[in-house]
Amino acid sequence: MLQQVVRALRKQDGVDDWLVRHILKTSTQYYVIGLQPENRRKVNTEQVVVTVMNDHAPAKGGEGRMRGEAEVTLLPTDLQHLPQKLSQAVFMATLTDNPPYDLAGAVEYPEVGLADPEMQAAPRQVAERLVQQLTEALTEERDVRLSSAEVFVEQSQVAIQNSRGVRGDKVETEMLLDFVLLASGQEDEMESHIAVKRRRAADLDVPALARRQAQYACDAIAASTPRTGTFPVVVSDNALVELLMSEGYSPLILRSSARLKYQRMTTWDIGESIFPGESSGDPVIMYSNALLPFGTRSSSFDGEGLPGQRTLIIDNGVLSRFWARQRYAQYLQVPATGSFGNMEIAAGSVPFASLLDDGPLYHIVAFSAMSPDPITGDFVGEIRLGYEIDKGQTRPIRGGSISGNLFAALAMARLSQETIFLGDYRGPRGMCFPEVTVAGA
Amino acid sequence: MDWNRLPPELGEASEGLSTLVTAMETRVPYAAALLTRNSGLQIGVNHREQQVTEIRPSQGLVLTAWNGTYFEEAATAALTKKHMFDLAREFASTVDMSPSSEAIDPGPPLKQHFATACDQDPTLLSAKNKLDFCLELHSKAKELDPRIVNVQVRYRETQESKAFANRTKQLSQNVLRLRLVVQIFVSDGKQLRYNWMTKDGTGGLELVQFTDQELRELCDTAVALLSAEKVPPGMYDVICTPEISGVIAHEAFGHGVELDMFLKDRARSEQYLGKLIASPLVSIVDAPSYPGGHGSYFFDDEGQLASPTCIIRDGVFERGLSDLFSAHSLRMPRSANGRRESFERKIYARMSNTFFAPGEPPVPSMIESVERGVYLKKVSSGMEDPKGWGMQVTSHYGEEIRDGKLTGRLFAPVGITGYVPDILQSVSAVGDDFALSGGTCGKGHKEWAPVSDGGPHLKLKARLG
Fold it and tell me: What is the ipTM of this complex?
């Protein structure tokens, strides 16, 4: 399918540059309610995503050439209409006027661990084993049971070519384990919910995860509302990743993007502090790392054919470099780094246990949802589960919210020495933010 | 596009659906087939870039087989007749048949095609016409204030076509969803703030028109947000716009009455079925058949015809929203809420257009009744908690109310939390207005589906922070 499309593109009028990605995907899905299967699914898809560039005179007149681009996706049934689909793409590309830019050129791609041979060979068995590990681990947990689980085991084969000589192939695997546990108390029942992604099944310790989530569900039964005021707040593990990564809409990632800089939607500049005021916490050092073995955002090449890289973005609280796709790198005259990879943050100075030493403080382990504003960095999140630590006593809390500004909070943060790997994040297990507003009882 | 028939990409494949069902039912007690195609156009314009491109299409077939206990499915993007038939035979032969064989009711016979009605059909205009429309809107907005650093205009036109067959039904539908967003970014040199307005629904271009007054208010609020403060945490009397009311209906209550949550023991609402759960002023409805709603459709992904479900009537929780499996397993009435993100994903019980029913008092009188409180205006996010019944909604901003008057003092952002029954029982006034806002809803953190929510203004008590 790929070569047929490439041949057609070479003949197509109005195509000044092109980029093609051929994606073959298989997905094995297994759903369980309690101990019973709810659904099993197997899905196969194939598509070719074509981007065409057309260079033309500006619509408003004047000197020079402008570039327009448009994307069309070809499904297997579209091949019989290939010339029409490509003409449609060219027509759309002729409509828009953007400053010219070049496509990525041919380079050698790095070797990165992206695929789990077991998930490739026996996806159904992997899915069933993950659920079995989960249910076996729960047999040791009193008063805790599995509400539901969903497992996706997926494989993607991606081939890329462009008109400037880029050629690449990669095979990736990814699994999603999403489960809910229920804990029963004397009068009440509460749940804990988690969804985790990994490229390798071996990177997930299901029994340990089940035990931790079981503890969270039990603690939620006894939890009460936190107090209102300003407190030190420690955020750790998955909750910390949610605060920093925000499901791809992280203020840290967006504010350091060349695209947003070009569009004047970030006030950050290279060589300047990312913090709104003085920094008094541990140094914040952040990399975009697409080379992290089996990271879920790792890649030997990105969607434009740029090679995966590990790039220093923030160095001791100062913006070191914008991460940039080819087009915006050229617009801003900065190096092209490719798409943002996994978030890697350097370890801090404090043992994790010490972050929790000095009460009174709150330790948050789960938010209902935490999506800091991608532009301002302001955040508000309901506490799904946390702990109040005061004078050596720990009591679970839930309800109420914490609020603040991510950049102001990071300026004062103390980072744990211990690091964790959670799929798309490698960095401190916990961070302590000394002054966070808590809205509670 | 000819709305009276399925697009040519699906036309031929849809003719063979009943044959696939027959082939599968030689082995399984119930089978169904669903063809889906999503496609469309998106346009983006901002100060420095323009884009016109296709929405990445999704097209495929889902074969569903009941094994006596649960459903198994096979899905493919290859839609040749031979491949579809071979897949149906092979799939049916591999279904794990259960010793129990409970029957699934295929419903009454029906053969019908449905299509969205629209006054100004955008598919009759060229992409250039639509780009010009966006460029004109951008051009108007960017001149509104010198502090504007960027204006984004995003237009999205999605054609969603489906064909469903089981042994009694042959249904097809074409649904057209439109969405137009104008987002204004302003800066005072130190900080950056923004505001946005969205117009959306199922229908034609008549849904997505902006007035000059709306653009002016949008810009003025973005500028005012440069001096917004943090809300002092605490309990407040709150007036919610329909947008905020809607997200309370959707996130706080709606997700917890999706009946697959009952099957999983994840819904606290189960204990309140038939009982008073909210103020008697409160009624909540889910209506996939609501004309023009962003979450509207004619039949769900299991062939159930769309009709409204009254979830809460006068404060009493009446019934939940179901997909076929949850309704069958729980022996509860079926509603047309079995929806999937695409052919690549399974069915869940999902909301469509979910809203509070309007009441009587005019909105100005509701604001006048607040001595000290906050007028919450725009949603930025929300998340469900059906078991714990904690509510999280984040408002992009709110405005202070003092002695019954809006003071112009803005708070941003504002987190709204509380225990859902407390919040619903605290509703002390339901306005006489009504509006829906569209969006995309996830189940947890995935499974995205187009929805809308809304209703009238509400007066209630909530914890803000």
Answer: 0.92
